[in-house]
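dude i think i finally got it to work??
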Amino acid sequence: MIISAEMGGNAGEMSIITKTALRQCLIVAAGFVVMIVLMKMPLFPFRIELYWIAYGFFLILLLLTRAFGAANGAYAWIRLPGNFTIQPSEFAKAYIILFGAKMLGKDRKEDNIKYLKQFLIAAAVYFVIILIYQKDLGSAVVLFGITFIIVMIPPYKEFTDFHMWMLIVLAGGLLAIGLMLSPPVTNFLMKHSGNYMIGRFLAAANPFMFQYDIGYHLIIGLVSFATGGWFGLGYGQSIHKYMNFPNPSNDFILPVIVEEMGVVLGLMPILVLYGIIFYRLIKHSLKTTKTTCKMICVGTVAYLAIHFVLNVGGVSGLVPLTGVPLLLISSGGSSLWAVMMAFGLCENEIINYTKELEACE
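look at this
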């Protein structure tokens, strides 16, 4: 599907098939290597200082992006020779899961609150850099969601009051988003705001009011869904991928899939496969008594699920477009490598926990 979608972005140039296939195969192979390395290596025997060094490394990468200019309004990429790019925020999302498990995964009694504050400050620094410095709303929302979920997991009594305040903040944030999508607020913003992020909220509320502007791509996506129907037009037969889709193989790959393969052969298999991954990870998180394993498994579920909601909701008009890829489906090396890193962390914890159970038996 990536090959088919890339054809739309390259005006049917046939040589793109070979280039895209080779590039994506290399990306997948490298991702498997990363996953296997993380699956085999010990994760938590290292001192906390080493984790802070890794945190600083990703922080530097996040700061370097500004030197490479903007793309689609965001300064989120580091450009390398050979037309390769790296998106450090994707790796920051995966790393924050491991970092949180290291900081909060062991019951230290008197030190729990201290480590919680340190972790929240560290996550907040990433969040502010991604949102304000890089201007990448989608990645910032994903990072916030992952942090929120994993902080809710440790069952320490010292966290009880903090968990309550977090739920209040979440409810307030959801209420604010609902108000922004309401007609009175969108009408007010339409008259008084020219911010492109606000424009995405307006387009989500009613894309047909901006059909020649910020709502154009969303409308093309909706038409692609409708055109595909239940069984699609056939592989490679999408019409709308040639109509100025932004990133047809990345952010907007789902409309291309549904237009060509339909709901039955395109969308449903994706939902089933995602469901299997969620089920397996949640099952292991419920079976284990290790807080670190719970945090890594549930954090990975949050990582995948938030990306899924933002991508699918964005291209279907249910939520504002945020520009995040559909993990494991969209093209791109950074997002695939990052999610494979998260899978490697999950496998590592699950294997170690299984070995401990077998040893006890």
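The mean pLDDT is 83.
im so relieved honestly
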